[in-house]
Amino acid sequence: MIRVRAGERRITVSGHAGYAPAGQDIVCAAVSALTYALAGYLEETGQAARSDIRRGYADIEGAGDCGAAFALVRCGMEQLAAAYPGCVEMTGS
Fold this sequence. Notes:
By secondary structure, the protein is an alpha+beta fold. The protein has a 5-stranded mixed sheet, with helices on one face. The chain has a single domain, classed as Alpha-Beta Plaits (2-Layer Sandwich), CATH 3.30.70.1490. The protein is built from 2 helices and 5 strands; from the N terminus they run E-E-H-E-E-H-E. The protein starts with a strand and ends with a strand. Helices cover 39% and strands 31% of the residues.
């Protein structure tokens, strides 16, 4: 189970989806893509306050006017949680 705690300027993602074997898990790939895209965007725009990304875990915090980027990622994570409820769990921060 991937657990996502998402707020307005911080997101924490932990765990593994368990939808398919490692390297073939489309749910993990989708969550990872959203997470890496957010981290990259914040870094490129100078809005990254802090990030800790490693296998099975990410904690990203933004600064400045980054609310829209976090809202977009929250929306994507919520859609994944709705489509794969046994693999992704969303909570607010």
